[in-house]
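Page 47, continued from p. 46.
Same chain as before, 389 aa.
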Amino acid sequence: MAARMINMWNTRFPKYRVRNYPFGPGLKLIYTLAAIGMGLVVWRWIVGLGPSSNLNDGRGWGLWIAFDMMAGIALAGGAFTLAAVVYIFNLKRFYHIARPSILTGFIGYILGAFTLLVDLGQPQRIWHLLIYWNVHSPLFEIGWCVMLYLTVLALEFSPAVFEWLGWKVPLKIIRAIMIPLIVAGITLSTLHQSTLGTMLTIMPDRIHPLWHSYLLPLLFYISAIGCGTAMLIFESFHSARTYGYPFKLGLWKQISKALPWILGLYIVIRMADIIISGKISYVFEGGAPTTAFLIEMIIGFVVPAVMFAIPRIRGSIHGLAWAAFFAVVGVAMNRINHSVSFLKGSFYLPNWTELMISVGLTCFGIVLYDLAVRFLPMYPEVPPKTAEA
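Result:
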């Protein structure tokens, strides 16, 4: 049915041709879950937070903020990193992977902003950020930076839309200001990625000592660069499998050479901070915090750092994909542990609605990516392949 609809569209609107990629069971499931999730979002707006979540006055943050916002924004951090590599340093050989990478970041920030609309008790008041300024709050900077960076990402991605529409004048203007846009994006992303950590430094009595640190702004920024770049590798691998475009192994192999150093720097700083601050005893006291900390650090940071450091693994498509997967899981666990699992407050366990909305939002992001690949010139038109050295 989907193929027939696409063929009908291409017949009627040949100028705006849609690419007729396979629409397999996996994509059908993702579209279904996205539709269910969006329906539950509307239901949450109608009935409020009480019936649609297990949030309470003693537990202001839940799954939506921890996973969809904190982890999602971190995993979208690879966009500014790769944009800097391609445009600031004029490394044209990476241009093939720049546009999908910017799209990944753009979708990540769209979902982050949308999550706020889901989580806020009165989402219709989100515009108050524009006129009621509390310059002493980290949330003020985060809100403005995310809003402005989302705008910058939209402009960075707009050439793909203008090329599809055939609008030459706007395309020429955007290309002329691309470098200033990239610089603005790097600045804004640096500010809010680190300020997400700043926001947690003001709660030393509520966050477990293994996760609280006054170096959180630096740690959050470093992990966003490393794990955000790993997310781009993970996304590129699955895009190649889904759409038949080549996985640029040679390019990702070059980029991933920096990841052992970035992840290693994170590990060294975090462990040094724990030792110097006298918190090392918590690593050996046992219990849930010790177990979660060891799993997060070993699986999420040490393992991918070692894998990315081994040339044989880095030169393998599946080796890269698995290393990227562990790094993605690591930063997701890290953000969830910081903002929910080991944040003191009333007992909290997300209900099925919260889980389905989070799953639905994630699937909605994949739907946006799928639609962009089908409609817009995301990749050069090449014969389908699965890998390219």
